Amino acid sequence: MLLANIELHGEDYFHVMSRLHAHLNPRTYLEVGVFRGASLRVVSPSTQAIGIDPNPILDEPAGPNQRVFAKTSDDFFAGHDVVAELGGRRIELAFINGMHQFEYALRDFINIERLSTRSSVVLVHDCYPLDAETAMRERCTAFWSGDIWRLILLLRKYRPDLAVHTISTPPTGLGMIFNLDPSSRVLADRLDDIAAE
Ligand SMILES: C[S@@+](CC[C@H](N)C(=O)[O-])C[C@H]1O[C@@H](n2cnc3c(N)ncnc32)[C@H](O)[C@@H]1O
What we know:
7-stranded mixed β-sheet
């Protein structure tokens, strides 16, 4: 955490996300990885929101336009008509902050992109690796961002059509992905090869 405070300055990701919600004013929002609900609480009350987490421990009840599904994201996407769950609308803003191994985040991105629009935005937590120990696939430190940073590298390599940015917001950076293509099959068709590479 000390290293994060030294390397990354400015507003933490909750403040950045709060400003993004106010600026984009999305009609729909989907969050993978809810935990205690802190990032769900920055969502505007008028946004139709879905949270997914196999083990949510909400500090406060979800808002009237928010529903939390106690499932893994893979199970959720496989078993739900997400557009129907969002009242017939596609995902306009998403936040990936679930399992800290990149292939999970990659599958989440693929599932979210196919349910999005060209102008949707996907945010990804933990994209700024601070050091080797905290950026490993297996957790060996209390502070752990995992290897989600690999998602940023592979998107830049395999999907040059996407606009992929990283905001250096504490504690571990926030990826921002624009110019989505819901019809793209590039990642889905090469999932195993990309993960192996
Ligand atoms: C870092 S916490 C999320 C924090 C929250 N987004 C925030 O910013 O306050 C990560 C959460 O991902 C959840 N998680 C782990 N594996 C998951 C999976 N396969 N699908 C969805 N969520 C998962 C964990 O249960 C944990 O609550």
